[in-house]
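Just curious. Protein, please.
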Amino acid sequence: MMKKSEWNDEQLEQMLSQMPRIKDNRKPQEIYQNITLKMNKQKKKVWMVPTIASVAAALLLFILAPSFIDNMNSSSSDSAEMAREKSSIAMENKEETSNDESFSTLQEADEPKADDEVEIFSSEEQPIQNYAVNSVGENQVLLTYGVYLGGVMFPTIVSIIVESDGQDVVEQWQKNIPQVNEFIRQNAGWGIDEIPESYFTDFSEVETKDSAKAVRVDVNNAVHTESFSSAQRVEFVHAINSFRYLLEDFQHVELFQNNQQGMMIGETGTTENNIDLEKDTKKAYLYYMNEESGKKLLALTYEDFKTVKQALEAMKNDKDQGDYKLYPTIISEIKDINEDGSNLEVHFSDDAVLENTDNYILMLDAIMLTAKEFNFDKVTFYGNIDQIGNVRFGKPTPVPLAPNPLPIQ
């Protein structure tokens, strides 16, 4: 902060008096005139600057106006063109979106839903035939009939399921023989021989002395069983064995003729009172197919086998009988077979071909029915597939009740 001056008037006056004298030699009129001219000149300069600036701005505007207008028009035209292009692009996009949506809708209409895909199979995947009966309904009855294929060449069993009518199973079995034979005649190309019903007059359920169930068979009095040929004998006995597959636990069949028990069957020299119903015949299952129809039917071998392994090995090869042939049912390589109590384990090779098709369903049914012949209750399959038909791999599957269900309504 400046220090306030402490000079008084006298000191100031004395200092000024000591300064050199300055004298203007011009006349008063000259001084006045100079001051007037300077003032007028400043006013003129103040007026001229804005005037010149205004004129310059007007001139510049005149020069630039056409170009500016052209640019404006060009800009406006460009903007309009851009607007038109944007509109066109938007319309194209909208049409493409609409087309895409339409195509997507058509695709969705053409393509089956996930639920539908589970139910639709190709011709290769769809099982063509059923080769075994696996279950029956609560009010249904399973009936099995011992017949031959190809003119008493190969023994087998055919099955039907009927509604229960309140009668015992033996009565229902006898009542349905004509219906089964009629179906066989209508499908003669399948190569199934009819049930020899002319041999018999009546069938009935009886109780044995030890309170077991048995079947009484009354043979036609006009039939001379002692004169049976070998073919007639095996046909007769096989028809009697029809009852071993029924769900009732029948012990044997009692033979009656002329109301007397016992008869000679063929030139054996032996009178037979009973025929035991074999629960396990130790036979194997191959398949028979008449070329006329292409229908596959499971058939039993004539041979008995000591072990189930031997039976399964026999199922890999053809079996000739005269002019007729049985075809192999096992078409995939098996690397191991294990017996675990009542469960048979079948291990297919790691590189074995396994498919969910008709031939492989036939193979599994034949293996399980053969296991049944050796008194196994279940079969567990192992291989490089999760499921074939109704059989889940890696889980025990109960053996079927009977082979060859006939589609009789």
